[in-house]
Design a protein that fits this description.
The complex is a heterodimer of chains A (113) and B (112). Chain A has 113 residues and is mainly β. Chain A contains no helices and eleven strands. In chain A, 0% of the residues lie in helices and 54% in strands. In chain B, strands 2, 4, 5, 6, 9, 10 and 11 form a seven-stranded mixed sheet that branches. The chains are: A mainly beta (113), B mainly beta (112).
Chain lengths: 113, 112
């Protein structure tokens, strides 16, 4: 059973507008939620994370929102830039370093000129 | 900065042959991971290690084994490769907070 779900395989957004990527999870024991970005032929790179005790974390153009009651998180990118075109993976983990890190299937973001 | 070298980067093999992928890190990070990436499935955890000779299974461990005899090396072995194991394999290390991984560039394996 999928514990981390990204239900939108792809998303297209006009350059300069806001990109919103969504993620749902089923395991209420997760303590950390993360977003990774992946370009073709490269490994994923860590983008931003949020602890389960917070509801928002911001880093420059990237903001992650967490709604624990809905078991839902979202990544907002404002403003969207051409270099943001990539696959974005949502991930979840426990609070211990030896906890498994579970990824969603990814959402491909296309930034349109 | 953390550094990961995966080898080989590309490999084509035939069904039934053994294959070993190597992940080498330049620092003494304790936690290492093997993931596979497939269209429609995202990143799935195969095995991970939390120290020398300490490994555990992930979501899709069937058909794979791992070994970690030195801190810097984490080997992934397919004892008898099958076409369903055609994939891109990523090694990763845990570098900071929980869930925060640094990934290698990937090894593309094709099993004919």
């Amino acid at each position: 059973d999928q514990q981390v779900k990204q239900n939108s395989p792809s998303l297209s957004v006009q350059e300069g507008r806001i990109s919103i990527l969504n993620c749902d999870y089923t395991n209420s024991m997760f303590d950390y939620f993360l977003w990774y970005k992946k370009y073709p032929a490269e490994g994923p790179t860590f983008l931003i994370s949020i602890s389960s005790i917070k509801d928002k974390n911001e880093d420059g153009r990237f903001t992650v929102f967490l709604n624990k009651s809905a078991k839902h998180l979202s990544l907002h990118i404002v403003p969207s830039q051409p270099g943001d075109s990539a696959v974005y993976f949502c991930a979840a983990s426990g609070m211990n370093r030896d906890d498994k890190i579970i990824f969603g299937k990814g959402t491909r973001l296309h930034i349109l000129p | 900065d953390a550094g990961i070298t995966q080898s080989p980067r590309h490999k084509v093999t035939e069904t039934g042959t053994p294959v070993t992928l190597r992940c080498h890190q330049t620092e003494n990070h304790r936690y290492m991971y093997w993931y596979r990436q497939d269209p429609g499935h995202g990143l799935r955890l195969i095995h991970y290690s939390y120290g020398v000779k300490d490994t555990d299974k992930g979501e899709v461990s069937d058909g794979y084994s791992v070994s970690r005899s030195k801190t810097e090396d984490f080997l992934l072995t397919l004892e008898s490769a099958t076409s369903s194991q055609t994939s891109v394999y990523f090694c990763a290390i845990s570098v900071q907070g929980p869930g925060e991984l640094f990934f290698g560039e990937g090894s593309r394996l094709t099993v004919l």
